[in-house]
Amino acid sequence: MERDLRKRLPKGRFLLVPPARSKTMRAIRGSGNRTTEMRLRSALVRLGLRGWLLHPQAVPGHPDLVFPRPKLAIFVDGCFWHGCPTCGHVPKTNRAFWEAKIAGNRRRDVRNAKVLRRRGYSVLRIREHDLQRNAEACVSRVVRSLRRLKLSR
Ligand SMILES: [Zn+2]
Predict the structure, then answer these.
(1) Which of 52, 84, 127, 145 could form a disulfide with 88 if both were Cys (CB 3.0 to 4.6 A apart)?
(2) 3-state DSSP: the chain helix, strand, coil percent, rounded to 5?
(3) What protein residues have CB closer than 5 angstroms to ion ligand 1?
């Protein structure tokens, strides 16, 4: 949860979010990210790529996938939650709330990437819509990054 967003909200909770909305939030979180990320994982498995960790808690920012050697952190970004410029839309009702929420997520993404780079990780972000349209192209990006990192070591 965003610290600055929490400051603006009473008791750090989204008290103004009606029950239907929080149900929507849960649904988006659940379907949006998990299935998208699964798509990437199964594509990696099909290619026989091994050695990655799933949501390693010890890595800052909790990337979705991490290759420890060479150090590559991969985030699968849901288009809605990460404010994708191509297809991310902001709901018309409660607009200010959603804008603050999504802006907070984006600031956190930038912060996490900085911390990871300082620790010697390369960061790869894959958007949900790219995975949906062309999972193979996304996997190629992963493979290319790994190859480049191995060569540059
Ligand atoms: Zn998108």
Answers:
(1) 84
(2) 55, 10, 35
(3) 79, 84, 86-87, 127, 129
Please list, in sequence order, all residues whose beta carbon lies within 8 angstroms of the beta carbon of residue 124, skipping any fewer than 6 positions away.
72, 73, 74, 75, 141, 142, 145
Residues 106-143: b if buried by 16+ CB within 10 A, e if exposed: eebbeebbeebeeeebbbbbbbbbbbeeebeebbeebe
Long-range interactions of 83-88: CB distance < 8 A, separation 24+? 84/127, 84/128, 84/129, 86/127, 86/129, 87/129
pLDDT by 10s per residue, the chain, length 153 = 445 555 555 454 554 555 566 655 655 554 456 778 888 998 899 888 889 999 999 999 999 999 999 999 999 999 999 999 898 788 999 999 999 999 999 999 999 999 999 999 999 999 999 999 998 999 999 999 999 999 886
CA of 133 to the centre of ligand 1 (A): 10
pTM of the model: 0.77
Question: E-assigned strands of the chain?
Answer: 53-54, 65-67, 72-77, 122-127
